[in-house]
Amino acid sequence: MSRTRQFDVVIVGGGLAGLGMAAGLAELPLKVALVEAGSVVSDWPALGEGVDDYDSRVSAITAFSQQWLARLGVWEAIAQSRICHYTDMDVWDAEGTGEVHFDAAEVNADDLGHIVENRLLTAALAEQVDGAANIRVFENSPVAALHYAGGEAALELDNGDRIQAGLLIAADGANSRIRQWADFATREWSYDQKALVVTVKMERSHAYTAWQRFLPTGPLAFLPLAASDATDRYCSIVWSADSDYADQLMALDDDGFKSALAEAFEQRLGCVEAVSRRFCFPLRQRHAVNYIKPGLALIGDAAHSIHPLAGQGINLGFKDADVLQQEIQRALERGEAPGSLRVLRRYQRRRKGDNLAMMAAMDGFKRLFGETALPVRWLRNTGMHLVNQAAPVKRQLIRKAMGF
């Protein structure tokens, strides 16, 4: 027998942005539902030592995101698990001599951020949500339909149950069905690239540095990973490459791929000793023209998805959740309905410009470093040399990369 349940806020999507949004609402006087098509796993995974024992998906958590996770009460548990801080960043151009080095000491910081496996972030946030008295989690509950009219939203689950809310928050990813059902317009295009992700063990230490080489076919990033035995030679690789080349890389056997990877990275960390299973996914930029409608808001990848070259995707999603939580709290203090257009416009106004600026920067970098014309190559390499020598400019870039 189907049932209808009423909540103040319903969040669709139990990924990192959705879980972060729910955790942010845990202390507010609201009845909250989190609806997830799959399972919401709050159990901490066993952490083995080997290239196949790391999550293929990792996030470069900025200092801002770290502070936000600490305010939610989850960072301490994450930090006690398996994370790797990075103190430096090296960025260089494969088509020239341009190189920029960033050091946390330049802004009097202990580090520039942390590389964290997504499954550990998920476990910490899910554990926090699971312990919140005001949150009901509906897992393994795909949404079959959205009924939305006049600012009133109701979800129909695949078991026939209905969930109604004064505010529906879509955190259901880049291919958000809520966004599509609610007729949000988007601007989007394909990069004609794919991102190849893999875990590797290198010959030499990663030196707690995030490395990125810009190749004509796309950027190659080496992100440092931690190991409980203090073996600082594991890295997570994100290799964004033109689609045909990415397919060729996926078709190589392990030895062939290790050789291609070491050559593309100029063997800065020596040879590649071991590689995990490889994964590959297409890259597409997408941005919702508007994030809001009465009683409905988009956050995270449901609102915007960008090129992964700077690892800013989930950090932007966390900022969305943080700002929307602030505006919901402010609305309650003022006696306003959280789903009112006036409240949601404040959220959109605070987040849209920042997201657009980051998306434009990432798109610009991708196109700039993909250009092979000699004058453009000379210009960007000269620019990199100038930036590397300009301490005030570097400090501003570092603070931006840290999320401030």
Secondary-structure blueprint:
Blueprint: E1 4-12, H1 16-24, E2 32-35, E3 58-62, H2 63-72, H3 75-79, E4 83-86, E5 88-93, E6 99-103, E7 113-117, H4 118-130, E8 135-138, E9 143-149, E10 152-157, E11 162-170, H5 177-181, E12 186-202, E13 209-215, E14 218-224, E15 234-242, H6 243-251, H7 254-264, E16 272-275, E17 279-288, E18 292-293, E19 296-298, E20 304-305, H8 313-334, H9 341-370, H10 374-389, H11 391-401
Parallel strand pairs: 1-2, 1-11, 2-8, 5-13, 11-19
Antiparallel strand pairs: 3-7, 4-7, 5-6, 9-10, 10-11, 12-15, 12-16, 12-17, 13-14, 14-15, 17-20, 18-19
Helix pairs in contact: 1-4, 1-8, 8-9
Strand percent estimate:
25-35%
What low-confidence regions span 5 or more consecutive residues with pLDDT below 50? none
Shape: globular
Q: For the record, what CATH class applies?
A: Alpha Beta
- SS element count, helices: 11
The average pLDDT score comes to 89
Largest sheet: 9 strands, mixed
Query: What structural category arises from helix and sheet content?
Result: alpha+beta
CATH architecture: 3-Layer(bba) Sandwich
Radius of gyration, Cα only, in angstroms? 22 Å
CATH superfamily: FAD/NAD(P)-binding domain
Number of strands: 20
| CATH topology-level name | FAD/NAD(P)-binding domain
Domains counted in the coordinates: how many?
1
Distance between the termini: 50 Å
Amount of helix: 25-40%
Quaternary status: single chain
